[in-house]
Specification:
The complex is a heterodimer of chains A (about 525) and B (about 280). Chain A is mainly α and about 525 residues long. Chain A has 16 helices and no strands. Chain A has a single domain, classed as Up-down Bundle (Cytochrome C Oxidase, Chain A), CATH 1.20.210.10. Chain B is elongated and about 85 Å long. Classes of the chains: A mainly alpha (about 525), B alpha+beta (about 280). Chains A and B meet through helix 4, helix 8, helix 10, helix 11 and helix 12 of A and helix 2, helix 3, strand 7 and strand 9 of B. Bound molecules: protoporphyrin IX containing FE and copper (II) ion (2 copies).
Chain lengths: ~525, ~280
């Protein structure tokens, strides 16, 4: 399907191989971007199928369909796939497609690294998914991989560790590439403070990735040696410290959640001004806010561990820094609302998803603020309240922005408009069902339901049933998304170059579909507007 | 004017929810539980109040922000002939919405700090219970009297929860929240809990006490509770600890002090106290 995206418009002066070897050997940013995005979409349905199994088992109290061990595997694999297989590759895919076009460059700076970064992914996930079929089953210790529990993993253990290593290597490659591209390949006149916010958020994400992923790699390597080579990094009996793993993990883990969401801020900052037909409010404060969030994200990690028994001073420090994140996050939300103020709004599908993002992500931010209040987190921690929180920020946050971005740029990529009516259906079905799915989980958590349990006492039955129904409707609605995309790739109303009448930025000055090589010659500096979106 | 309006709208929206929520105090036997339980310790009530304050604050902010958004979506639509203006900066406004949230956060941080300091102060405790997590049950050592006991999921629940057991969970009393032997504790006594584990990490959590604490092999964590009401309170392990993580409930039975002493004596005589620790 991706063939029709840009093959026809390609200049074939490089004698690129055709057929499947083209995809294997390609160094073109658009080809690689498409592969990332298609891969991510496939993983979205694999991870989604696991979520459907989880909601099926939780539909009623009692164990009807799966065994507890398999249930734990589903929870673990679902999280790993959604984080490392869906959201992270999708953002790298968007970066590939968009950043060269946005900064007036012909391609990414390191095309071979680019190819390599992508092709690691299918292998990494083959390793991980294979564990479903080996004796002892897939990893079941949670995506957080806390020892000593994770060390009880059977034959799947080395698969898990090496998959994580590969995923980290892939992401670091992608991040280096983005940074090298942005710092070296901007068109003349494209100064840093003229960059679209999507590029800015990706610069900062790139630094977060490079700083945090090696930490994760180190942590899982220590797990590996603890299990197979007799070390005791995390074993108290051998003089080690199981809590140290949690500190190391979350030193990676909290920046990681911002890796998942910062590019979303960039996307929403492109879409809202377009459909409000008004420049983004507070461009510079947006850049500073993202930088502030990124900085803070390195000094809040222990808010995931308030119950491990830290000293009072530690708990206070991490509470203060955590709730402080609400300030720059608030600035961003206020800026988006101010952008809409006195605009001239229309509500095409990308805008609907972007507005849905602003509201629902903010709800996730609210529960985040609540979770950051240490003494109350003693109650919330490891309950469905946390599950509700991170699904609001990740599903209605990260995933919503990914969907919005897809609708927004798809016409530019394919040269066709998607079906607007179906797009609106997709939005409303998703938005209603996702709230039916996740809002009741706040109540479940407050009423005392722990997370990661396959069965629950009967007082939680009602909200679980509601949540499961919402889950299935949400899952099915996403099939519509695939249908819309395939239809749009195959044909549809011809898209104009600018596509949206309120769109600004270099990518919209290129033809639709975008030519195989983006800017072979630098764009006319006078076409570079900047600092406003 | 807008602030008052906002407050009123917030009240209208949240009042029924909160009213419902406060009725759902006893977690154990209420369906449709919506909110934290107020609990039965001074700390748990502080937590409850803090939770409600922060919930109230975010609700007000939410109503304000979402209200503005919906108003903008209604008033500034192109189909109604809205003309987009071109401004995109206002330093005064930006300063205001950076500084005001800061003050709100300080307002939250102060009571939260007080509550935390109280929670971490285990001084003056009158007795100590050591709680050890196992895959998948709990051990309780009453350090002062030497009583020691294990507590695991009740047979009725354990049977019903097996796949294909054919038992309807709703027909089982306290499904998954029942144990073979309850932890008996005295009322109105400052009890120090020491949590640890023998194999993997668990977390000991009875919502009515207002906190949970990780039970970590090789570590001993300290926390405390002064339970002000006799009764039976149920909870669960809250940290993923393997296959049967969902099946290691915690049930405490809080009794008058003299009754507690009688129970301890019986325990020491090695009498079967299961009957005592039931009902
Ligand atoms: C206002 C901003 C935010 C604050 C103050 C905040 C705070 C917190 C806190 C305190 C926890 C730990 C809760 C617990 O386990 O007891 C948590 C969990 C989590 N948050 Fe956030 N959060 C915020 C935004 C986000 C964003 C933007 C994301 C991702 C896009 C995110 C993703 C997560 C995830 C995945 C977890 C659960 C991790 C796990 O235990 O598996 N949060 N958050
Ligand atoms: Cu975090
Ligand atoms: Cu457990």
């Amino acid at each position: 399907m991706a063939d029709s995206m840009n093959l026809d418009s390609g200049h074939h002066e490089h004698h690129a191989p055709s057929g499947w070897t083209r995809w294997l050997t390609t160094t073109n940013h658009k080809d690689i971007g498409s592969m990332y995005l298609i891969f991510s979409l496939i993983m979205f349905f694999i991870g989604g199928a696991m979520a459907m199994i989880i909601r099926l088992e939780l539909f009623q109290p009692g164990l009807q369909f799966v065994d507890p061990q398999f249930y734990n595997s589903m929870v673990t694999m679902h999280a790993l796939i959604m984080i490392f297989g869906v959201v992270m590759p999708a953002w790298t895919g968007f970066a590939n497609w968009l950043i060269p076009m946005m900064i007036g460059a012909p391609d990414m700076a390191l095309p071979r690294l680019n190819n390599w970064s992508f092709w690691i992914l299918p292998f990494a996930f083959s390793l991980l998914l294979l564990t479903l079929f080996i004796p002892g089953g897939a990893p079941a210790g949670g995506w957080t991989m806390y020892p000593p529990l994770v060390l009880q993993t059977g034959a799947a253990f080395p698969f898990l560790i090496f998959a994580v290593h590969f995923l980290g290597a892939s992401s670091i490659g992608g991040a280096i590439n983005v940074l090298a591209t942005v710092f070296n390949m901007r068109a003349p006149g494209m100064t840093l403070l003229k960059l679209p916010l999507f590029v800015w958020t990706w610069i900062i994400t790139g630094f977060l990735l490079i700083a945090s992923l090696p930490v994760l790699a180190g942590a899982v390597t220590m797990l590996l040696t603890d299990k197979y080579f007799g070390t005791s990094f995390f074993s108290a009996a051998g003089g080690g410290d199981p809590v140290m793993f949690q500190h190391i993990f979350w030193f990676f883990g909290h920046p990681e959640v911002y890796i998942l969401i910062l590019p979303a801020f960039g996307v929403v900052s492109a879409i809202i001004p377009t459909f409000a037909r008004k420049p983004l409010f507070g461009y510079q404060s947006m850049v500073y806010a993202v930088a502030a969030i990124a900085f803070l994200s390195f000094i809040v990690w222990a808010h995931h561990m308030f119950t491990v028994g830290m000293p009072l001073a530690g708990e206070l420090f991490f509470m203060y820094t955590t709730i402080l994140i609400a300030v720059p996050t608030g600035v961003k939300v206020f800026n988006w609302v101010a952008t809409m103020w006195k605009g001239a709004m229309t509500f095409e599908t990308p805008m609907l998803f972007a507005l849905g993002f602003v509201i629902l992500f903010t709800i996730g931010g609210f529960s985040g603020l609540m979770l950051g209040v240490t003494p109350v987190d003693f109650q919330y921690h490891d309950t469905y309240f946390v599950v509700a929180h991170f699904h609001y920020v990740l599903v209605t946050g990260a995933i919503y922005s990914l969907i919005a971005a897809t609708y927004f740029w798809l016409p530019k990529w394919t040269g066709h408009m998607y079906n607007e009516t179906l797009g609106k259906w997709h939005f409303w079905l998703s938005t209603i069902s996702v709230n039916v799915l996740f809002f009741p989980q706040h109540f479940l958590g407050l009423a005392g339901m722990p997370r990661r349990i396959p069965d629950y006492s009967v007082q939680f039955a009602e909200f679980n049933m509601i949540s499961s129904i919402g889950g299935w409707v949400y899952g099915l609605s996403q099939l519509l998304f695939v249908y819309i995309i395939i239809k749009c790739v195959r044909g549809g109303k011809k898209a104009s170059d600018r596509v949206w009448d309120g769109a600004h930025g270099l990518e919209w000055t290129l033809a639709s579909p975008a030519p195989y090589h983006s800017f072979d010659t630098p764009p006319d500096p006078s076409t570079i507007e900047g600092g406003v979106r | 004017m807008t602030l008052i309006k906002k407050l009123i709208t917030t009240y209208i929206i949240t009042a029924p929810l909160l009213a419902l929520a406060s009725e759902v105090e006893n977690v154990n036997d209420n369906k449709w539980g919506l909110n934290l339980s107020k609990g039965v310790t001074p700390f748990s009530q502080d937590i409850y109040d803090l939770h409600m304050i922060v919930l109230f604050i975010v609700t007000i902010i939410g109503v304000g922000v979402f209200g503005a958004m919906f108003y903008a979506m209604y008033a500034f639509r192109k189909s109604k002939g809205a003309q987009a203006e071109a401004w995109h900066e206002n330093h005064v406004v930006e300063a205001i919405w950076t500084v005001i949230p800061l003050f709100i956060l300080v307002g939250i941080a102060v009571p939260a700090t007080e509550a935390l300091i109280k929670m971490e102060d285990v001084s003056g405790s009158e007795m100590t219970v050591k709680v050890t997590g196992y895959q998948w049950m709990w051990q309780y050592d009453y350090v002062d009297s030497g009583v020691s006991m294990y507590s695991k999921i009740a047979e009725s629940s354990n049977f019903a929860r097996q796949r294909g057991s054919g038992v309807d969970p709703s027909s089982v009393e306290n499904y998954l929240l029942d144990v073979d032997q309850m932890v008996v504790l005295p009322v109105d006594t400052k009890i120090r809990f020491l949590t640890t584990a023998a194999d993997v990490i668990h977390a000991w959590w009875v919502p009515a006490l207002g906190w949970k604490r990780d039970a970590i092999p090789g570590f001993i964590n300290e926390s405390w509770a002064k339970i002000e009401k006799t009764g039976i309170y149920r909870g669960q392990c809250a940290e993923l600890c393997g296959k049967d993580h969902g099946f290691m409930p915690i049930v405490i039975k809080v009794v008058e002090k003299n009754e507690f002493n009688r129970w301890v004596a019986l325990q020491l005589e090695n009498t079967d106290t299961r009957e005592f620790a039931k009902n």
